[in-house]
Write a structure and sequence with these properties.
This is CHAD domain-containing protein. It comes from Streptomyces clavifer. It holds the Pfam family CHAD. The structure is a single chain. 75% of the residues lie in helices and 0% in strands. By secondary structure, the chain is mainly α. It has a single domain, classed as Alpha solenoid (CHAD domain), CATH 1.40.20. Helix 3 crosses helix 4.
């Protein structure tokens, strides 16, 4: 981990950790108030409500991640309970946004695929001649017909899932469980339950856990399949990449606490892992839609092409990650 600055090595852990948690708690409560103000069923309020929900999720994740990494400086029972509840809340709120983003990604990809040439892998091995282009034309025609139906199918499925996620989020925000979480965060905004060791220096109590978060991130990246094992259609490898993304996020939050800002050299790598997650989930949605009973062959074909396209986006995101990852020695497994 980078050498901590002078401020966080001379201040106590309490002086570093408590203001950060109070700031995040204040951001959580501010976002909650804005979300309630702009959640009326009008077009004017929808965008602001989405922004408020996004800010609410961000604050919840930062508080939860900080409670996880720096548990030793806090009351452990309180930290574990609040962390669990915040994970539930951020996950519940994230689903609606995820379905909307996934639908937009898939419809845009279908639009581009149906109006473009087929991928080179389908035509590169075909020798020049009259019959082969005709076959390619047939495939493109089938894709054009199937794309419209595939888009309609995806829109029905994902819009229904988004509607259900929206209802679940509204139900969660009106539940006694959420009100207990909001009360706990409101208390956190004024008083941070610290352990008896919190008055110790931050260099002793915060930089050790932050360094451990970094080492876990590096170990997760080192466990990723090497370049020569890249298989875009091997969904079983996705879990390792998702784990690396979560651990990178925890490292970024820990870095915010001890350094005052996220680690800037990881911005590109973090963005690549976000794209990887989005593409992998979009590919899974296309594959699930293709298993719908009694769909037309052209629809199934378009969904198959869409699945292949998104899996190649997965591979592209992995390549970008490796190009932007600053710790070269940890990119591939030994």
């Amino acid at each position: 981990m980078r050498r901590p600055d002078h401020q966080t090595t001379t201040l106590s852990a309490e002086a570093v950790l408590a203001p950060y948690l109070r700031d995040q708690a204040a951001g959580f409560l501010r976002s909650l108030r804005l979300h309630r103000e702009h959640s009326a069923p009008t077009d004017a309020g929808t965008h602001r409500a989405e922004e408020a929900a996004r800010a609410l999720r961000h604050a919840a994740r930062r508080i939860s991640g900080t409670l996880h990494t720096f548990r030793a400086a806090l009351e452990p029972g309180w930290a574990d309970q609040l962390r669990t509840e915040l994970a539930w809340l951020s996950g519940t709120l994230a689903r609606e946004h995820a379905y909307a983003t996934r639908l937009g990604r898939l419809l845009e990809a279908l639009h581009q695929l149906s109006g473009a040439q087929l991928p080179a892998a389908r035509t590169a091995a075909v020798p020049a001649g009259q019959a082969e282009p005709a076959a390619g034309d047939k495939e493109r025609a089938a894709l054009g017909v199937g794309a419209a139906r595939a888009g309609a199918l995806l829109e029905r499925r994902l819009t229904l899932a988004r509607t259900r996620a929206h209802s679940a989020a509204l139900q969660a925000l009106g539940s006694s469980r959420f009100h207990a979480v909001a009360d706990a965060v409101a208390l956190l905004a004024s008083e941070v339950p610290l352990s008896s060791t919190a008055p110790d220096q931050a260099d002793d109590l915060l930089h050790g856990p932050a360094g451990l978060a970094e080492q876990r991130m590096l170990a997760a990246v080192a466990a990723l399949p090497p370049d020569d094992a890249l298989q875009p259609y091997n969904e079983a490898q996705d879990a390792l990449w998702h784990q690396a993304r979560l651990l990178l996020r925890l490292h970024r939050y820990a870095h915010e606490v001890v350094r005052g800002a996220p680690d800037p050299v990881l911005t590109g790598a973090g963005h690549a892992l976000d794209l990887h997650r989005d593409a992998a989930e979009a590919a899974a949605a296309a594959s699930a839609a293709a298993r719908t009973p009694r769909i037309a062959p052209a629809t199934a074909y378009a969904l198959g092409v869409l699945h292949a396209d998104q899996r190649h986006e997965v591979e592209a995101a992995r390549s970008v990650f490796r190009e932007t990852w600053p710790y070269t020695a940890a990119v591939t497994a030994p």
